[in-house]
Structure formats: structure tokens, C-alpha cells
Amino acid sequence: MKTQVAIIGAGPSGLLLGQLLHRQxxxxxxxxxxxxxxxxxxxxxxxxxxxxxxxxxxxxxDQRMDEEGLPHDGFELAFDNRRVRIALDALTGGSKVMIYxxxxxxxxxxEAREAAGAxxxxxxxxxxxxxxxxxxxxxxFDKNGETTRIDCDYIAGCDGYHGVSRQSIPxxxxxxxxxxYPFGWLxxxxxxxxxxxxxxxxxxxxxxxxxxxxxxxxxxxYLQVPLDEKVENWSDDRFWEELKRRLPEEVAQKLVTGPxxxxxxxxxxxxxxxxxxxxxxxxxxxxxxxxxxxxxKGLNLAASDVNTLYRLMVKVYQEGRTDxxxxxxxxxxxxxxxxxxxxxxxxxxLHNFSAEGDFNSRMQLAELDYVxxxxxxxxxxxxxxVGLPYxxxx
Length: 394
Description:
By secondary structure, the protein is an alpha+beta fold. The two termini are 34 Å apart. It contains 13 helices and 20 strands. The strands form four sheets. It has an eight-stranded mixed sheet with strand order 6-5-14-15-16-13-17-20. α1 (12-23) packs parallel to α6 and α10 (298-319) packs antiparallel against α11 (328-350).
């Protein structure tokens, strides 16, 4: 089997890259070790930056997003018995975010790929890239007892933090940067109306909480919990009661509770690997970087990587610009480190770091008070939240 770009991973980044390339006439095959049903079952982020919304429109998968997604032009910070609204559109010249779940994005991309007749191979075992430093890379995988080889020009590693792509790069070629936070997020999904029309990020002495949503009838809430906490220790009743304690009283009184659809705990960490390219292998999304979810940057950073690689491949195949290939990593990392900074800053400002004592707590409140009483401070938050401009290859 032959193709121009082999994509490892059928999550939203792999599917989005494949869709964009297909629309430009660049042949690609996606290989995924899980089933399509498993990929769709992942509960993930739901805040899309302006840049990702525009990229989904370019990919031709915006119809359902526009019909069912919730455009948001602001969100709230709650702290010290105060609620401050960050007016995204007013502070950024009209930019907004879109509330539309990752599961929905993935489903739209799957359907578009199927309609286009592009190839996705699910439940592929033992996926391995080969010949990465040669002019003729290829990947192999096992399925139904047979080994298949796909020859290609380039390989896109969109297979996440635990995937094979990054692990295929020699250790001495990579430098890893990591920060592990001493807590996680306990998330609960419920078919209840959101407590607010906009997201609320709440700092409290008991710990951080977030009121989010997936639609007008489905809510997603989070609580900061110790890193060693277990989901089994949290009944629905315990979760709702703790959430009410951490929210401003007027918000807690409006909270509609109900049975959980899903509960899970996600650890928080920051992670970046440099470079993001090895020969003809390009790392995309979580394969190269992880951000704490406080800044809503995980899926959006993957989309910005996709944007860079997609435009690079168009330059290669339509203009013969192979000289730009070496710029992929540097171009992506400029934006990645800025997003890492914003996510680290939001995490540091809003979470309870009890081990660091009262001084740190006072510094958090001072920081929040300063940035929310300054137009420049609120503009900084808004610009980062809606997403910084995509970096250009040239």
C-alpha cells in the first residue's frame, strides 16, 4: 500500500489533518490501534479557540458545530466572594470561543472522512514507523493475523502521549520538559442544565472548581482533588455538596444536580518535547506536549500543530517547498510555549497549593485582584483564552 502522508492516530488531530489534506488533493491513510467506538467514547475538552473554529470551517466540518455549538464571548473568574467577567469579544476585537465537545468534533470528522471515501484503518495492532531518516519511510501494522506495510513520503504522529510515534525517536535526540502538579481534576458529566450561561473558574480555600458545559442541557463540572484520590470515594451526592461549598453562594443556589453520566480523575502536568520532528516523522498534539486543562489549551494546541503541518504539506506538494520542512518544530514550539505559560499561570493562580502556605495564598489573591482590576490584565487573559494567532512558516 502507498500513500503520500501516513497518519498514526485517529483522534481529532489525526482526523482533522487527514480531512484538510484530502481537500487539497494530498493522499493520506490513517492508522489507529483502537476501535472507532473507543475513540468516540473519550470524554475530553469542549472549549474551541477562534483559530480552531476557523480551521474546522476550512476543513468543511462546521455545519453541526454552527447548529449545536454555543458561541461564548466571555467567562467568569470567581474568588474572594467576587465574580469578575472577562469579556472576550470586547477585549480582543471580536474574537470568541465555541463550546462544542471533542466527541462531537471527532464524530463530525469521522463522518466527513467516510463520506470522502478516505481510508482509516481501526484496530491496527503493533503499529510501527520505519526508515524515518530515509527518503522512503513506511509504517507497518498487524490486523486479522496479517502484517501490512504502508509506504509514504511523510509520517504524522497524532497518537497521543502514550503512542508509538514519540517512542520511535531515539532518546538522545529529544529533550523533555515536565512539571507535575500535586493534584488532579475530578470531573463529572451530567444531563443537567448548566448553572451559568458562561464558564465559571472558581478559586476557593478548599480548592479549585470549574463550571463548564457541553450543551444547553449537558453540564461538565470539575473539582481539584489530591493526586492520590480515587473516583470510588466520590458519590454523586458528595461531589455536588463539595462543588456547592466552593462556588459563590448565589451560584450554588442555582445549581441543578442529577445523576452522573461519567466521573473520572485526570492528573495535571505540563510536558513539552523538543524537537517535534525526526527525519520524516512529525509529532502532533499530545504526542509532543501536554498542558494542564485550566487554560483550555490541549485540543486547541493540537489544532495549531495540525494547521502548521497541513500548510507545510501543501507547500511541499503544490510548490515543492521542501526547504520549509525543517521549520516545523520551531514554528509549533513558539506557540506551544506561550500556551504552556498561560496554562501554568492560570493553574498557579486558581488552585490550592496548601503545602506552600498562607503567603502563596495571599499572592494568588493579589494577582487575581490586580489582573481583574486592570484592562491590560484582563486583555492579557482574553487574548490568550481565545487563542494567540497561529505562527507562520515564513
